[in-house]
Amino acid sequence: MTKTLYGIGETPPLGEVPARMYASVIRQDRFGPPKQAFRTEVVDTPRAGRGQVLVYVMAAGINYNNVWSSLGTPVDVIARRQRLGLPEDFHIGGSEGSGVVWAVGEGVHNVKVGDHVVLTGGQWDESAEDIRLGTDPVVSTTMEAWGYENNYGSFAQFCLVDEYQCHPKPAHLSWAQAASFMLTGPTAYRQLFGWHGNTVKPGDPVLIWGGSGGLGSMAIQLVKLVGGIPIAVVSDENRAEYCRRLGAKGTINRREFDHWGRLPDVGDAEGSAHFLRGARGIGKKIWEILGERRSPRIVLEHSGQDTLPTSMYLCDNGGMVVICGGTSGYNGDVDLRHLWMRSKRLQGSHFATPRECREVVNLMNAGLLDPCMSACEGFEDIGSMHQMMHDNVHPCGNMSVLVNAAHRDQRTLGLPALA
């Protein structure tokens, strides 16, 4: 007789989909710090529709987007979906993961039940007019972040994805490692190699903000891999040492400077002088690391408001500041004289295409990238791990949680963090 509900880690017969499942759930009446917002509940198991795949989740990655989900700001993702006519009054987050294909919907041809897969976080409507006319799906009007803007992410026993989100799991990685890099890795890959005319080439200096984080860890390796020169910005010596071990040519401690934030008004001579002292001070640090007076060809940005003025100032003539987030704020000031007179480029970049995701998987399969998993905990720790990220006390590299995978030795695999 088919069971209605299985315990976390209890494996149903392959292909048997129980009616109910355990999930780490956010609800509107719990919005607030992540440790308060996430609660384990029993909900209905979603069913795979046309083009969709139901995955038995072994492990899930931790990312900042579900800090925002738990806070209910800058977007109440539950209310947003309800305005679109979707019925669920809860949110199941998780925008990357690893697991086993458990059921497939009509029209699915490239994965089958039993396949071991890693999951990516971009979703779009493949039948949308802009995509059919040749638009990159990442910039389609239908593009959304799975497990953030969309529901039924990887923080549950089963998750629901579109077929193109599934990629072969690198066999040499643990479930936890495999779950940890498929958001940060492809995002960094697209930032560095996805923008024609400003891709990393051998010998190019690349400045990487937050070098010890998940995105920075991937970026340092990717720049080094093609012969570029990664320079990481960090907040302490432990994180600096971590970045150097990954391959950074040198590091800059941002706490040695205090000019961060929005640009002063043009008429504020004292404020402008203070900004220039700080920005030029970082430029001198870069020259010291390189041993010559050179500027970064690419600046990999995601911190936003506090750092964007400095990034644009430091970027080389004809170079690019490429940004995928705004963790310090969304108001990015730019001195337009630096932008137009030096032919610099400010480029937004949001996740990656399926091709770019597969290229990252191939690099991981070849042993050319390390997932940099520094922390792995259990299903019940999803809230506390997001709380660490919210409080900026999380370890270096990428983090994951085990869902249905056994704990075994998963916590200690991968490049260890130093903080």
Automatic annotation (TrEMBL):
The keyword RNA-binding applies. PROSITE patterns: QOR_ZETA_CRYSTAL (PS01162). It is found in: Cytoplasm. One of its GO terms (molecular function) is oxidoreductase activity. Pfam families: ADH_N, ADH_zinc_N. SMART domains: PKS_ER. Keywords: Acetylation, Cytoplasm, NADP, Oxidoreductase, RNA-binding. Residues 32-394 form the Enoyl reductase (ER) domain. Its EC number is 1.3.1.85. It comes from the Bacteria. Homotetramer. NCBIfam families: crot-CoA-red. This is Crotonyl-CoA carboxylase/reductase. It comes from Streptomyces gamaensis.
